[in-house]
Structure formats: C-alpha cells, structure tokens
Amino acid sequence: xxxxxxxxxxxxxTAPGDLVFDPMCxxxxxxxxxxxxxxxxxxxxxxxxxxALAAANITLARSQGAAGTAQVFTGDATRLLDxxxxxxxxxxxxxxxxxxxxxxTHGLVRMTDNGVRKRNHLYGDRESGNxxxxxxxxxxxxxxxxxxxxYRLLRPGGTVVITCRPVxxxxxxxxxxxxxxxxxxxxxxxxxxxxxxxxxxxxxxGQIVHRASMFGLMAVRKxxxxxxxxxxxxxxxxxxxRRGTVP
Length: 247
Known about the structure:
Blueprint: H1 3-13, E1 19-22, H2 29-36, E2 40-45, H3 48-63, E3 70-74, E4 92-97, E5 108-112, E6 115-119, H4 135-153, E7 154-164, E8 167-170, E9 173-175, H5 177-187, E10 190-199, E11 202-204, E12 207-209, H6 214-225, E13 235-243
Parallel strand pairs: 1-2, 1-4, 2-3, 4-7
Antiparallel strand pairs: 5-6, 7-13, 8-9, 10-13, 11-12
C-alpha cells in the first residue's frame, strides 16, 4: 500500500486519537501513517519476518517524533479476536487493509554472470497458512472471516477501506478482485459508501508515468507481442464501507 494512500484514508475517515486497525499489515505502512497523524494503530500479519519489519518501522516512526502509538502482533488474522487486546473491541474507527492477492513482492534484483537474480521477492510460504498461497476460494473465505471479526472491533459508524486491483489468474483470465471483495464485505454486514480509484502512477503534462517494475513491464510487452492487449496497472480500486446495524 502506498503511504500517501494510507495517509489520505486515515485523514479522511478518522480524527486525532482514533484507533486504526490493519489485519494484514505487512511491513506496517498503515500503522506508521496512523502514528504520524496522531492516531493509534493495531496490526496483525501472519509472517514473522514482516511483523519484525513493522515493529522496526514503528520504532523508527517513534524516533521521528510521531505523536501516535502502534502495536503489531504475529498470527492468523482469521482468528484476530484471539490476538488483539480485548479493549479494542468496539473502539476501532477505521479498518484499512489490502488482501494478499499474490505471493510476490517487488524484492531486490541483481545482475550475475547467469543473468538477473531476484531475492526477498516472496511473501511467506505455503506452510505458514498465508492466504496468498491458498487459491481464490480460500482467499475469499479467509477474507470473509477477517472482515466478520473486524466488524466486532469497529465502533458504531466505523469505516472499512479495502484497496485492491483486478489480477490475472492466467494470461487471458482477468479476475475482478474488487468486485469479489465487495461482495464478501457486504456478506458480513458492511454497507458500501464509495468506490474510488487511487493512482499508482504520476500524471505529468497529461501523460501517465507508471511505477511498474521491470518485470511487470517485460510481461506486458511479451503479452502484447503475442496479441494479448494487456496494460500496465496504473491504479487500485478503493472500496469504502461502513459498519451496518446488523453484523
């Protein structure tokens, strides 16, 4: 999640002193932006390597003078009520998250005598229970469980913001992930408020300047050379929902 996206959502839907929750917090972007905006954050991630990064980022934000506080817990967010403090139930102003719809990260690359090599480019592993490795059905079921539990944490009128984008399961099979996640969110009692677009690219002199990785750019060029009209992803869908009256 881009830091500016997280900061905009936190500024728009919460006030100083409010509690912000990310059930799949990764390296802690949501938590850090909440701290810098004088909010308090709680995050969960199933991967210990990422919660260690989140904890380090929380410490860095504190050293930079961030007025808010944050906690991060390692565990399976489908059982998040067993992980977060009981005092958070009914107090969360904003749930802000992005589901793991892929097991790849940008990682790091370097040139070797044998070509380009990547490292730190995988988000966890299959044995950890990470939803990124379980297929679409398990992802949607797990996300429903996470949102249902998050509903319990939300205060009356609390907001849920989900960022996501369509993804390709195969070269010619585009999955409407935003539409699927919207249906999941509604199934647990969340009420749609807005559907927005968050740019992942700059706009300069009327032209889009993309942020795609070299590998993403190569994949698009290869697909187009084979006659498949693939485009670089330049935005994410942002789903905004509120806590309804009946969970």
